[in-house]
Amino acid sequence: MTDPLSRVFSALADPTRRDLVARLAAGDATVGQLAAPYRVTVQAVSKHVKVLEDAGLVSRSGDSHRRPVHLEADVLDLMTAWIERYRRQAEQRYRRLDAVLAVMEEETQEP
Amino acid sequence: MTDPLSRVFSALADPTRRDLVARLAAGDATVGQLAAPYRVTVQAVSKHVKVLEDAGLVSRSGDSHRRPVHLEADVLDLMTAWIERYRRQAEQRYRRLDAVLAVMEEETQEP
DNA sequence: CCCGTCCTCAACCCAAGGGTTGACAACCGC
DNA sequence: GCGGTTGTCAACCCTTGGGTTGAGGACGGG
Questions:
Q1: Ramachandran region of residue A56, left (φ > 0), alpha (ψ -120 to 50) or beta?
Q2: How many CA atoms lie less than 13 Å away from B25 in the CB half-sphere?
Q3: pLDDT tens track for A8-23
Q4: Does the C-beta of A36 come within 7 A of strand C?
Q5: How far, rounded to the nearest angstrom, does the alpha carbon of residue A64 sit from its chain's CA centroid?
Q6: Chain D nucleotides with an atom closer than 7 Å to a protein C-beta
Q7: Closest by alpha carbon to A27, among A53, A58, A5?
Q8: Which ranges in chain A belong to alpha helices (H)?
Q9: What is the value of pTM for the model shown?
Q10: A65 CA – C12 C1', rounded, Å
Q11: Which of A2, A5, A90, B68 has the fewest CB atoms within 10 Å distance of its CB?
């Protein structure tokens, strides 16, 4: 599971991590702030943040100890690009099928 | 992990399953046809298809034994909706930050 | 300078996931 | 109706993943 897309999808497969992303969309935050609302330990949240970081969804620019976690929204586009590609392809198939059905309908009406 | 969004993200976290989706976007196919290109056993592919089905990404309308697997593209919108929501929110934050910086710039120029 | 706070690393536990083999049910062609 | 093809179920292996506790490292405010 070394490919970037798998990491991103896998990172967002967890509800806690999706919640982290949702909250980080509203602004940067430290690990402590992020961990506060949950009942899990700070260590667990730290792990989650690391997973998000490895997926490129999040960054911590500073080298300080109490550095804020920052959402990297660009990576989200990677997913949307993948998804949209196949959604559109499938949609096109439907349209083509509709066209075929329309032609068939026409042909039955004038033999 | 019972929530739909987690299931969808988790389903697409696997490269093989993403490939299945990609191929199904081009048209329906049976499990056998789907399994052919891979080196894993048919049972493994059958499992993958079941995961996609549980996530709602795929359906098998017929009750026949050799029923074709069909991509349900609508579910992909569920993900895009989630992603876009937070991507835009983050984007807005940037714009607001830019606005603030612009105002600060202006104020320094006319004291 | 030093104490408390904040965070991470390490080791471990248990559940879930992807893979395999083996058996078996259901269908199709004949 | 029978034999081969096609797909799924079941049991099992091993790895990954989320969680915990325990220890320890690095700052920051006094």
A1: left
A2: 21
A3: 999 999 999 999 999 9
A4: no
A5: 28
A6: 6-10, 16-23, 25-28
A7: A58
A8: 4-11, 15-24, 31-35, 42-54, 74-109
A9: 0.87
A10: 27
A11: A2
